[in-house]
């Protein structure tokens, strides 16, 4: 499969994994068969795996430049990511995670000026914004010391693992 074919297949798998289980009858059957916890754990692992495949497929797609993302755009991402992580960790409910994805996607969209990554991050931004329209903004935030420590650990892990897992350093040059 060539770069664009893999990219489109990864998108189709990712969207299918989110649209099909969201159908009330299918979701009810899965939850009844697996149990709520197992369903959520399986759905989360599948989503992460497909997201990672989509990220890799975007990187392997042919490079088609759309705009020049200057060095300042990496600063934008590095300033936005702590906010995204705090939103995901501190918010009450799933809407915090969806807000975190919107912040992540929006900042990364600006910093990636090629067709495949613009499609990836732009698509993720639309996907997250639709989720926010459906669920609403977080109703509140639970700021506790353990959550702050968790947010810092997640940020440090993402910063240090990004070059190994994604293949690009997130640090401004």
Q: What does this 3D model show about the protein?
A:
The two termini are 34 Å apart. The protein has helices at residues 3-19, 24-34, 36-60, 72-90, 95-111, 115-135, 145-165. The protein is globular, with a radius of gyration of 17 Å. It is 76% helix and 0% strand. It has 2 domains: 1-62; 64-173, no CATH class. The longest helix has 25 residues, at 36-60. With 173 residues, the chain is mainly α. InterPro entries: NnrU_dom. It holds the Pfam family NnrU. One of its GO terms (cellular component) is membrane. This is NnrU family protein.
* Average pLDDT score: 92
Distance between the termini: 34 Å
Note the run of SSEs as H and E: HHHHHHH
Number of helices: 7
Helix content: over 70%
Shape: globular
Over all CA atoms, what is the radius of gyration? 17 Å
User: How many independent structural domains?
Assistant: 2
Fraction of residues in β-strands: under 5%
Which structural class do you get from the secondary structure elements?
A: mainly alpha
Number of E strands? 0
Biggest pleated-sheet summary: none
Runs in which pLDDT lies below 50 for 5 or more consecutive residues are none
Pfam families: NnrU
Protein name: NnrU family protein
Domain NnrU: 8-170
Subcellular location: Membrane
Structure characteristics:
2 domains; 0% strand; transmembrane helix; NnrU family protein
Summarize the topology.
Elements: H1 3-19, H2 24-34, H3 36-60, H4 72-90, H5 95-111, H6 115-135, H7 145-165
Pfam families: NnrU (PF07298)
GO cellular component, one term: membrane
Protein name: NnrU family protein
